[in-house]
Every structure is written in structure tokens, then in C-alpha cells.
Design goal:
The protein has helices spanning about 10-20, 35-45, 95-100, 120, 145-160, 175-190, and strands at about 5-10, 30-35, 70, 75-80, 110-115, 130-135, 160-170, 200. With about 200 residues, it is of the alpha/beta class. It has a single domain, classed as P-loop containing nucleotide triphosphate hydrolases (Rossmann fold), CATH 3.40.50.300. An 8-stranded mixed β-sheet has the order 3-4-2-5-1-6-7-8, covered by helices on one side. The protein starts with a strand and ends with a strand.
């Protein structure tokens, strides 16, 4: 099983982007969130109980019993929400690596990863995996962010998945010149060019 991996600073934005850019739009696609459970409850009305263990439970139970259905863009999306305490949990990387060997109930699996947890959550990658980075154009870079991108660059060179570059998006409409300037500044700081159009989320 190959993965479509979206790396974001804001996991809920990642879920919105996954639904907006989905080519499956239906029960054939599974979206896995590894963090951001509290925000998902706020924006989508889903709250996981304190005992909900998310992805790790997929090896003991029927995964369909763990999934929530999120309605957006006129379609239904199957989402495996993170645990209520995902930031305290152990690494998701091993779980995601093992999940590749689960029964193929879904034609497509999209994973939302947080930049700040790449070392804990980014699984071993394959040449068939698709990976893309997303950045909200108003967010400012920090040294931690630069370090996260450096780690990601190392993994891309080692594992050689299909990397689809850095994409910028905005939650609110803004002047195109301001967006273009921010894109240029951030791309230059990270050393990653972004030839893609802005995504309005």
C-alpha cells in the first residue's frame, strides 16, 4: 500500500486540504490524522473520548468501527481521528509502517502529518509514496521550522518518494501581490521553490 502524505503546521487545515484535493471522494479513501484532535472537534464537531487510541487500535479492531464520516464539498470522507492525547503518544511512524500490511479495504490512504512531529510520525517511505508540504501564507518561519524542513530533506534523499514540493494556501482572501511576496520570502528561506498557484482554503 502506498501513501499520500500531506505535511502541515495546522492538522485541521491538512484535513481540509486533503478533502479539497481528493481525487477519490468516497468510501474508497481513508484519511488518517496523527495529531490535532482538539481542533478537529472544534471545527468538525467530532470529539474523541479519552480512551480512544486511534491508529494503534486498527490492529486489534475492525477499522470501520474507529472511523468518523466527515461531510464536506458535497462528499463524505472517511477519517481516522487522532487520539485525544496524541501529542503525548508514542511514535506513529511504526504504526503507519505496519498499517501498510493491513487488508486493502481502501484504494487510497492519505496521512496528515505535523511538521513538529516528523521525527516521531514520518514512517519509512517507499518510491510509490506521494508527499507534499503545505504552508499557510501568513504563518511565520521559526528556527524549529527550518530544522523540520532540513530533517525532511534528509529523509527525501534517503527514501526517494515522489515529492510534490511546497504548496502555499490561505484561509482568507488577500492581495495577490502580498501572497506572492510571502511565497518568495518563505521559499527563499527554506531553499524550496514553489511554482504552484495559491490554494484558497
Amino acid at each position: 500500500m502506498n501513501y499520500n502524505i500531506l505535511i502541515v503546521k495546522h492538522p485541521v487545515d491538512g484535513l481540509k486540504l486533503a478533502m479539497k484535493t481528493s481525487t477519490q471522494k468516497g468510501k474508497s479513501e481513508l484519511i488518517i490524522m496523527t495529531s490535532g484532535g482538539a481542533a478537529a472537534a472544534l471545527y468538525f464537531g467530532y470529539e474523541t473520548p479519552p480512551t480512544y487510541v486511534g491508529l494503534s487500535a486498527a490492529f486489534q479492531y475492525n477499522i470501520k468501527a474507529l472511523i468518523s464520516t466527515v461531510e464536506a464539498h458535497g462528499s463524505s470522507y472517511q477519517v481516522l481521528l487522532p487520539t485525544a492525547h496524541s501529542l503525548r503518544s508514542l511514535s506513529h511512524a511504526e504504526y503507519l509502517d505496519r498499517f501498510r500490511n493491513q487488508p486493502k479495504e481502501y484504494r487510497s490512504v492519505t496521512i496528515i502529518l505535523d511538521y513538529t512531529r516528523l521525527e516521531q510520525d514520518l514512517p519509512p517511505l517507499t518510491a510509490g509514496d506521494n508527499l507534499a508540504c503545505f504552508w499557510e501564507v501568513k504563518d511565520h518561519l521559526t528556527q524549529e521550522t527550518v530544522n523540520n524542513f532540513s530533517y525532511l530533506t534528509e529523509r527525501l534523499e534517503q527514501d526517494k518518494p515522489m515529492f510534490h514540493g511546497l504548496h502555499f494556501y490561505g484561509r482568507q482572501k488577500s492581495d495577490k501581490e502580498i501572497w506572492a511576496k510571502r511565497k518568495e520570502e518563505i521559499s527563499a528561506s527554506l531553499g524550496i521553490q514553489s511554482p504552484y498557484d495559491m490554494i484558497e482554503l
